[in-house]
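thread from #wetlab-drylab

HS: before we spend reagent money on co-crystallization trials with 2-acetamido-2-deoxy-beta-D-glucopyranose, can we at least see a predicted complex? here's what I'd submit
DV: go for it
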Amino acid sequence: MQYVLEDLNVSFICFVVFLVINLIIFALARGVYTRNQPCLLSSIILMNKLTDVSFCLLGVTGDDEFYFGGSVYAMDSSPSCSIGSHLDAYCPPSKRARISSSYAFSFNIFEEEKTPSIEVLPDECLFEIFRRLPGGEARSAAACVSKRWLMVLSSVRNSEICKTKNESLNDVDMTSSNEDLELESDGYLTRCLEGKKATDVRLAAIAVGTASRGGLGKLSVRGSNSMCGITNLGLSAVARGCPSLRVLSLWNAPSIGDEGLFEIAKECHLLEKLDLCQCPSISNKGLIAIAQNSPNLSAFTIESCQNIGNESLQAISRCCPNLQSITIRDCPLVGDQGVASLLSSAPSALKKVKLQALSITDFSLAVIGHYGKTLTSLILSGLQNVSEKGFWVMGTAHGLEKLVSLTISSCRGTTDASLEAIGKGCHNLKQMCLRKCCFVSDSGLAAFAKASGSLESLQLEECNRITELGIFSALSNCGSKLKSLALVKCMGIKDLVLETPLLSPCESLRSLSIRSCPGFGGASLAVVGKLCPHLHHVDLSGLCGITDAGLLPLVESCEAGLVKVNLSGCLNLTDEVVSAVARLHGGTLEVLNLDGCSKVTDASLFAIADNCFVLNDLDLSKCSITDSGVAALSRGEQLNLQILSLLVAPRFLTRAYLPCENSGKLWWD
Ligand SMILES: *[C@@H]1O[C@H](CO)[C@@H](O)[C@H](O)[C@H]1NC(C)=O
Ligand SMILES: *[C@@H]1O[C@H](CO)[C@@H](O)[C@H](O)[C@H]1NC(C)=O
Ligand SMILES: *[C@@H]1O[C@H](CO)[C@@H](O)[C@H](O)[C@H]1NC(C)=O
Ligand SMILES: *[C@@H]1O[C@H](CO)[C@@H](O)[C@H](O)[C@H]1NC(C)=O
Ligand SMILES: *[C@@H]1O[C@H](CO)[C@@H](O)[C@H](O)[C@H]1NC(C)=O
Ligand SMILES: *[C@@H]1O[C@H](CO)[C@@H](O)[C@H](O)[C@H]1NC(C)=O
């Protein structure tokens, strides 16, 4: 945009008008401060007789509440934004200081007289005036006058503002008077617009209000305003006002297209994080512009963007050497070409890669396996076109030397053979999570455990071909570093152990979590207890099949002393095993959850009161306890209880005892 005024006469008029506007703004600003709204309103009416007025009271910084509705500014193409009234006076609800109908009436009368006003000036003139306004405060006040003024103001680039010497002093005060705008610990102004608040007018107001402070550092838009959601206009205003934008996150912004990104690319060269989700109008053109102008881009996410494809990823791999993290999910145009170019670019800093629901094939995985030398974290999910060969090559290529964390979810290419290859190829792998991998069986799991010597944490979710035998051999075959095992909803476990297999124990395991595996019963638990003598944390929530006899061997074979025990939903457990836990592990037990163990009674509480001196969190919801049990807890003088949960007050309880003096929280329903 060129706003060069060649005609001297026009410049002179502009200057005179500029002075007048300064006076108006002075009055306006005072009006805002004194909140003397009726006065303010009438003074504006008297001074301006504006014809197209959308008036509101705005926070001094101009970036908060911007209420509008009546007169639709030309940029709001959607007619649904219009209410169609002639009255255009708006105030924030909290300050809605009752502009009486008589004022509204007089307003309309004045509107009828068409005398010359500053509104007849063309935008170019206003632009020249506005960029000379002294200080962000004056600009914010001017932005309150009308949507037209706001949009002209928001078209002033940050670099085009004629700064006065004292401006920085004003700005300090403005920051402190601002509530909504967060100043994060890293010193960036941050703003998140959600739902109905995500409109162009708000974005423009933010841009104008923050421009004098260098603009926003981080902007998130979570749009769902179907009537007047943000468009390229709003994003362009942000680009002009916020040249130091570092983080841009746009979710659900169907009207944002390439033009908006062009403006961002042109003005914001410091961009470090870009996050686009459900932006169907953005295509490769916009992203390529960003890539070419954002050398510092380090994190990049695209999700459900139908028009972004291989070319964008190629441009990013060419232009952004600092890229450290990429997430690509559900983008139908992204194929092997794009993913491969991202991963094979020469001086790579890439650490985290997440690929989800893409139509990439074995080729991409082979490239990851060969070139992913800097990768530390890899998540592969829902890759339906990758076969066993792809995963096998990824493992055997021996490129993933630094990989620490790997998650594979819903990929039918993960089989016993490919899993073993991954175990052999990734020497540094510490965390492994397999989710919904229905082709992995016991032998594959055991081979993987044997091959991956650095493994510290193994999580298996909904891997239904794996049985308890696979778990046992994984535990006894894994290296000496495995600390944590979690099984969630593995339906293949059936508790059919007839004889205890001869296995070497897993001395390193500290945390065992078996959640919602209904088949996991006493026989399996006994074996696990023997295999893992040094457990600290045991979570068996939702194992409704286990009984006292099943759990006792594990409780008895734990040598190290249990610290956290979660038995929520283990319906068949009774006082016998809870007392054993209290007796054997009272010296170490800190957290005990018995939520839903309806067979647990006061006898357990007596044992707890007598033995558990470091217990600080006890959940007795839906247990069959009575007053005397709780009273026993409250008498246990050495008890250290801080949280006691009794949600759904037990029917036996008639009076509430506070268990002990230092009880911090008592949950009661
Ligand atoms: C700048 O601020 C100083 C003191 O804060 C004041 O004396 C001076 O008049 C101001 N100058 C302008 C141009 O506003
Ligand atoms: C990129 O970031 C580095 C360090 O964070 C900084 O020194 C450099 O100036 C930035 N480059 C650009 C173009 O902003
Ligand atoms: C992206 O690359 C893949 C694989 O190279 C190719 O099949 C696909 O057609 C490409 N998509 C576009 C939009 O060019
Ligand atoms: C991916 O798999 C689907 C069906 O599973 C198939 O229709 C499609 O052609 C495959 N795409 C590629 C690139 O192989
Ligand atoms: C115990 O398990 C339940 C159910 O999985 C969970 O909601 C709860 O947070 C767990 N409690 C602790 C202390 O881990
Ligand atoms: C465990 O409890 C369930 C439900 O209360 C019951 O159906 C089942 O028979 C019990 N199992 C044992 C072994 O007691």
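DV: The first strand starts at residue 182 and ends at 183.
HS: ok that's useful, forwarding to the group
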